[in-house]
Design a protein that fits this description.
The chain is α/β, with parallel strands linked by helices and 359 residues long. Helix content is 38%, strand content 14%. The chain is built from 14 helices and 10 strands. It has an 8-stranded parallel β-sheet. The chain is globular and about 45 Å long. The N and C termini lie far apart (105 Å).
Length: 359
Amino acid sequence: VCTSNQVGFAAMLMQFCFKNVHSFLAALLRWIYMLVSGTQVQQTPVGHISRLKTRTKEQKEGSSTQLTTPSSVNYHFTRQCNYKCGFCFHTAKTSFVLPIEEAKRGLRLLKEAGMEKVNFSGGEPFLHERGNFLGELVRYCKQELQLPSVSIVSNGSLITENWFQKYGDYLDILAVSCDSFNEDTNKVIGRGQGRKSHLDKLHQVHNWCRDYKVAFKINSVINTFNVDEDMTEQITALNPVRWKVFQCLIIEGENAGENSLREAEKFVISDQQFQDFLDRHQSVKCLVPESNQKMRDSYLILDEYMRFLDCREGRKDPSKSILDVGVEEAIKFSGFDEKMFLKRGGKYMWSKEDMKLEW
């Protein structure tokens, strides 16, 4: 016969068991919910599930369910420039340039995350340390990181043959910006310096690219001052591997709005005007058009602090630096659309070894 104490002990034991089973089931359900919804969970040192930590709205918007690979990255390591193009959308708002060893560390992080191509831009990338800083980064990326493609976008004005002699072997593509084959139009746009001829320099750099086996490319921004021009004959004669044709783009805080260093509104053209320009040049086989829609979210842009810049809202919203949080975390806030990147032809034969050009 059970005593009252024994009955009471049995009841307490059963209550304890049911309570622990309930806790275990509740924890199990929370864990399953975490797996399904993507909510983060923390674990204590002894392996017990602690209180769930839900991501903030900002983190949900910035992150992606699929990890983005930074296959092609544009590194604007300086904002300083010797030209004053009226529509510039990456203006000299700071004079900061990373120490070269820090820049190399960031480039290595990008390579480890999957970078295949790096494009150095500015500002004017040949301005800092007379091009030697740029040259050493180019050498490092090709020789040490062994990237398939290393390229530069420049206005061309500061490039010397000595630079090609020293660094040309490590460079795959050099793009020179030229918006018009009328010298007066270039001056109105702001693409020029003093009495120097932008077009003479363009042809000189073109010849150096041929002599030192670097693929030559031309970038043009189509705006109110050149939209009616026919460049077919000149582009065909220069025969670049690619002619990138951009529609003039407004970026809040850079070339429009409060605190901007440029006022680009007078340069803006309509979508139809841009299409008319493309139609006029449809016989140019190397033409690669980029409308405003394609430009906003199809580039991985790193600023001078190695922060990704999200341009989806018509301004440049920076992530944290890859040097502080790593590539995987920072790239979540890049606004990068890989589908648009592929649609605009972002992935192409970008190594000069694969191009098999006749020099």
